Amino acid sequence: MIKHTRLMNYLTKMRIPFYKPLLAATSAAILASCGSSAPAIVSTPIANIDTIPLKITALTDAQFKNWPEADLVYDTIPGMSVNRAYSEIIKDQKGKKVIVGVIDSGTDIEHEDLKNVLWTNEDEIPGNGIDDDNNGYIDDVHGWNFLGDAVDENLEYVRIYRELKPKYEGKSASTVSEANREEFILYKEAEQEYRKELNETQQNVSQYEQIKSQLVAAHQAVSSQLGKEDYTIEELRAMQATAQPLSQYKAMLLQIQQNVNENIPKAIEELDGAIDYYSEMLEINLNLELNGREIVGDNPDDLNDRNYGNNNVMGPEADKENIKHGTHVSGIIAAQRNNGIGMDGVAQNVEIMTVRAVPNGDEYDKDIALAIRYAVDNGAKVINTSFGKYFSTHPDWVRDAIKYAAEKDVLIVNAAGNESLNLDEKMVYPNDQTPDNPLEISDNFLTVGALNYDYGSKLVADFSNYGKKNVDVFAPGNKIWSTTPNNEYEYLQGTSMASPEVAGIAAMIRSYFPKLTAPQVKKIIMDSGLPVQANVIVGGDRLNTKEFSELSTSGKIANLYNALILASKVSK
């Protein structure tokens, strides 16, 4: 589980952005023949964005809901120029259908904005209990669910610690045979990580409960004094409070409102969310007594044990909460455009293939390896992988699947992770490198970091991982509006959201320029991005600044408009 999208939505405060007046840019006419799958484009690419002055007004609600589609030159918002690409380049062009595999927690295939963009296996007769197409999966009409009825899972290092504890507990390196040395080291690393996370999580629960108790007491006292629950900061400042503890309560609440720019009931609600998050970590992800895999019935350490899972890509829970993440990711890529409902995904001409393989906890390497192969074998040309972990028991299974996708000309777009880490120094899984070899194992794996909507020093999202060698490009990932289960929509954030933004670009390139290979599409996305030369804050720490160009291999912001222009040139 590349953490912690849910927690970030409780705790991260949305900043008011300050941007520059826009710089005029030239744009040539689009020469495109109606109905062509490869439009001829002579538009001028967006360039020299470091000369664009900062915007000085806050984003409106409408702008927040669409900021990833905005154009930096026209809107002074660091989006991917999606709307501009459609209005100036795509117009009425008809591209080719592209299947995008979404390997995630599952997708609400009944959602109003997704039900018309689903991949359907035409070679399978629904509900007959027969593997009609002989692909090894019975009735896989819209994809496959490798988790069966499983939902909750441990983190990988918890599973490792639990499995190896009986064998190595109390032993030292000097007492372990050379044959078991590597396994012993893995055990000690997992034990150390488990004990650290357990201690920190327990402390967080206690701390947030204490803060909430104090905040509730202060809020109740002030509400009683003012005669209202929802008071403004001006009303709080004007409130007479000379006696204790009301004077202390007033000072506390003023500080909170000034720092987080929210009313107190909302702050209490967010604290409840944080407490729930950490409590769930203790109850599920760090719980040594939990065996979430048992219900699946397979051996997760046997790659050849493949007769498991089912075709219920929405999973077992009636409230669909467990598939929120995957539903949000699917909407970013391909929510039906121009239907007057909800939102528009980045890509049109897309069919979403749902592959459920990511539980509430860390995914199993076996599931991911088989999920990638399933998507490839059933026609996906782009695969989105918005998940990850820092321990892996069978990384070669996944790397072999990535190489298999490369052989079949499939591009994998991957989330960088949300811990503000330099991935050149910390190995994350899945990846396209090995610990002892910095060279990429394939050229079809594109890793994406997350941007904030604030163009300037705060351009990089506080939580985003980065890495000159191991992150390829950045894209919008903070406060992203998209589909959630039961025909709803919600803001979520994380590199999990940035990855599908780029997967959408990849799908558009493969739709309109189908002769381009996966490596070509990857290179086009990286080369066509908007280069930023400015210094930016990393990890939300104002004392930690780096050149944006040093945070990824490309040093660029993914941009659909520029990508289509470059794709047109490369395809000639």
Automatic annotation (TrEMBL):
The keyword ATP-binding does not apply. Keywords: Coiled coil, Hydrolase, Protease, Serine protease, Signal. Residues 1-24 form the signal peptide. InterPro entries: Pept_S8_subtilisin_bacteroid, Peptidase_S8/S53_dom, Peptidase_S8/S53_dom_sf, Peptidase_S8/S53_subtilisin, Peptidase_S8_His-AS, Peptidase_S8_Ser-AS, Peptidase_S8_subtilisin-rel, Protease_P7-like_dom. Residues 191-218 form a coiled coil. It comes from the Bacteria. One of its GO terms (biological process) is proteolysis. The active site is at 104 (charge relay system), 325 (charge relay system), 496 (charge relay system). GO terms for molecular function: serine-type endopeptidase activity. Residues 95-528 form the Peptidase S8/S53 domain. Belongs to the peptidase S8 family. This is Subtilase.
